[in-house]
């Protein structure tokens, strides 16, 4: 996992009484991200942020990691519904996202809007050890949360934990990443833009809105995705969203779910 061009608008610290292993984690994450590690001492997170001019504080604790923006809800790393869906996939059950993507074991996936990484986890479980999932997150603090969270989270199921560790997390604008890739270099390109008019926010997703980019997807992003993808370009949106027609996606999913997947199939002969 890597984190590129990280500014020091956030800092890394620990809980009140960190053990040696947690201190070593903090040092490694600081080296990987360029964000300074600040010993906690007796200061509250809010006071630590104020003293060091940081907008966000990544706090490492023994069993996990959390991202704190003073005055806002805390964002704890947890795969949320991604864990439940991953377990279903491991049991052989179908997942609408994977069906729409035409994903097969060994496929490579570029998740352009990682968020908390729930969809990346499902892709990673399904593509297996022979596949590769890259999760792109534009928010650098959230990206750091994913890097640390996916590495140390323990679900109780080895297949899920290994799938999390296989995900390559990077902080960047997804359009920049797409522009840098050769033609037909990834099997599936995926977009899950943050809904500007949310259906409902879970306790896990609600705090993420503080960090999310509310801008609609650019048509150039879809053009680049179609150039890069070998099989499909996939987008998740609300059922009646006009984004599907604006960006050229075909909605195939039936039923009454509030969110659906739009697909652009790539002609493998082109």
UniProtKB/TrEMBL annotation:
E.C. code: 2.1.1.-
GO BP: methylation
CDD domains: AdoMet_MTases
Ranges that cross the membrane: none
Alphabetical keyword list: Methyltransferase, Transferase
Record has Nuclease as a keyword: no
Annotated InterPro entries: 16SrRNA_methylTrfase_J (IPR007536), SAM-dependent_MTases_sf (IPR029063)
Name listed for the protein in its UniProt record: Class I SAM-dependent methyltransferase
Species name: Paenibacillus enshidis
Organismal lineage: Bacteria, Bacillati, Bacillota, Bacilli, Bacillales
